[in-house]
Amino acid sequence: ARKRLKPLRTVVAWRGRAEWDQVMVGLYCGDSRLQQEALDRVSAWKSRYGPKMPLAVDCTAELIRCKVLDSSGRLKSHELILSYGLALCRFVNLITERKQKMVSIPLRQLAREVDIPIWVVDLRHELTHGKLPRLALCRRGCDVVLEWLRKTYWSRQLGNNLCEESEDEEQEEVEANAELDSDVWE
């Protein structure tokens, strides 16, 4: 007689789809108070899940935390640049790290493979190795990366439709990224 095997269970830090959806909506809603509540929930997930926390969740939380701090008015411009800068550098490094093989592959190539705009990689390079960019560019980078995370990770996890945009909005985004890719540093 064969023993029936129970299906393997996947343990996650969130209680279920409703909690996941609530956190995703909270993070992306634009209301600082609701964003802070969602950040608190992500911190709880992280304490439960530890190093198994999905990179995209961690990166999203770091970037949203920067936006919450920015809207609070408590930090000076230079401090905000450093805060955004760290979050953006971590995002590019962590997301592209998984695609690195035994041989070092340029970040620009890896970014292209996962559809991260090249100018975001250039921004990361400037933050890491060059002169600190303007706060407006860091904010723009944060917005672009958060949108990338929403489309490529959050909305796909449980089949959410939060990333549905009109074709006009999508075309505007493509054009804006092309402008930034062409020569953002001049």
Automatic annotation (TrEMBL):
InterPro entries: Las1. GO terms for molecular function: endonuclease activity. Residues 164-186 are annotated as: Disordered. One of its GO terms (cellular component) is Las1 complex. It comes from the Eukaryota. GO terms for biological process: maturation of 5.8S rRNA; maturation of LSU-rRNA. This is LAS1L protein.
